[in-house]
Amino acid sequence: MATSRAEGDHLVERTIKEVLRAVQRSKEGIEEGIARLNEALEKKKKEISDFEAKYKIRIRKEQGEEKDDSARKEGTAQGVLVGPAGGSG
Predict the structure, then answer these.
(1) Cα 60 from chain centre
(2) For the chain, which residues make up each domain, given as ranges?
(3) Tell me: the pLDDT tens digits for 7-59?
(4) Which pLDDT belongs to residue 11?
């Protein structure tokens, strides 16, 4: 069995086996890309966390947000309090 698709001005016919192989390769490439992006995201999260710890930065939560980590970040050391941009001062 064959399938057809247009490439530019031409109609190209490929077998299901060829299409399946191409789809599998595309799927693998997408999965690898997702894995690389997740690794980069985790690395960036760690960099941000290290930066916050180094400079004693505390992020102020918006009203209504969970305050799970407030006990972890509370302490006797003074630091910088950062709030949302453009807030009414």
Answers:
(1) 22
(2) 2-82
(3) 888 888 999 999 999 999 999 999 999 999 999 999 999 999 999 999 999 98
(4) 87
| Strands in the chain per DSSP E | 2-7, 10-15, 57-59, 80-82
Q: What is the pLDDT of residue 79?
A: 64
d(C-alpha 40, C-alpha 24), whole Å: 24
DSSP 8-state code for residue 8: T
Return all residues near 56 (Cβ < 8 A) that are at least 6 apart: 77, 78, 79, 80
Residue 26, φ and ψ in degrees, nearest 5: -65, -45
Is pTM beyond 0.90? Reply is no
Distance CA 44, CA 89 (A): 30
CA atoms within 13 A on the CB side of 86: 0
